[in-house]
Each structure stands twice: as C-alpha cells, then as structure tokens.
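Researcher: Next entry: Small ribosomal subunit protein uS17 (Hucho hucho).
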Amino acid sequence: MATLMQFNLNMGLFRSMMERWVCLHGSVFDLVLCIFPTDRVVISSSQPSSRTRSMFWVVVARRSYHKSLGLGFKTPGEAIDGTYIDKKCPFIGIVSIRGRILSGVVTKMKMQRTIVIRRDYLHYIRKYNRFEKRHKNMSVHLSPAFRDVSVGDIVTVGECRPLSKTVRFNVLKVTKAAGAKKQFQKF
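Model: Predicted structure:
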C-alpha cells in the first residue's frame, strides 16, 4: 500500500530522519518508491535575509496488513508480501469467512477478480430409486493473492457476506488440476 507524504526539508535532513525512524520503529517503510521534487519555496524568518528550502513529495510503500483465517487454511505468500489492495480479500480485506466451506472446479475466468466454478452433485429420485447428475454454477471472488489460477483447477471456497448481487463466496485455497479429464466429479 503506497502512502504519499510531503516534506519541506532538504534531502540530507530527510535521509537522517528516515534512518532515525528505522532505528526506533524497525523497518516500517519497506521501500521508498519515488521522490517528486517541487519548486523551491521561500521561507520567511525574523532575520532580514530569507532562506530557501526545497519541498518534495515522497511515496513510500508500507508492509501490507494480513490476517490468518484459521479453519486450517494458510495465508498465501502474496497476501503477506504483496502490495495489492482488495477490500473483498479474506486475507487483507474486511471480509470474514463464516458458514459453509465448499469445493468446485473453475470453469470461467472472464470477470475481474471473480470466477465461475461448477459444483457437481447427485440428486436422488425416489420414484425410480436412483440418482441423477446435476450441477450448479457459482460466482466466487478470487483475490489477487492467487496468481496462477486457470480453468480446470479445483478451488475451495468459503461463505462470506454478500459481496455483490451474485457473489457470496471467497476463494480460500487453489489446487492445481492433475490432468486433462472431463468427467463428472462429485464434491
């Protein structure tokens, strides 16, 4: 997450201030992304001669906040080290997982940060004393913490509050597809 700060100090004073900050608080600022110098400003003082200082903007990247979901799910490394912003992410956002934990196969990835999964199941017909195959498609939110997800992968999703009109689940774990097989899979 990037933060914009304004300093009206010279560069040497800024460096010493940052070194002092790191010594006191640890490495809170992971990386100074860029420095934008602005026009020199005149600072008037009580003395007859006025002095000038340069003013510049500093953009720094902070460590992202992440949380552990519990329930036996590991927080992805990208959620810990990444700099993405996603308020609907269960690892760094404000969404909590509660309710059902389901699995499904990824079928479509054409939306932004949302995928469609297919859940196959068997439905019992009492008249014939047999089962029939059925399926449901579900739209689920895919956090940017999961980078290499492709069609055919098996994902574990958890229920959360409604994120949009059709999205009520969040991806918690991705298992890569073992082989290219198209068959009925019961979850």
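Model: Note for the record: Residues 2-62 form one domain.
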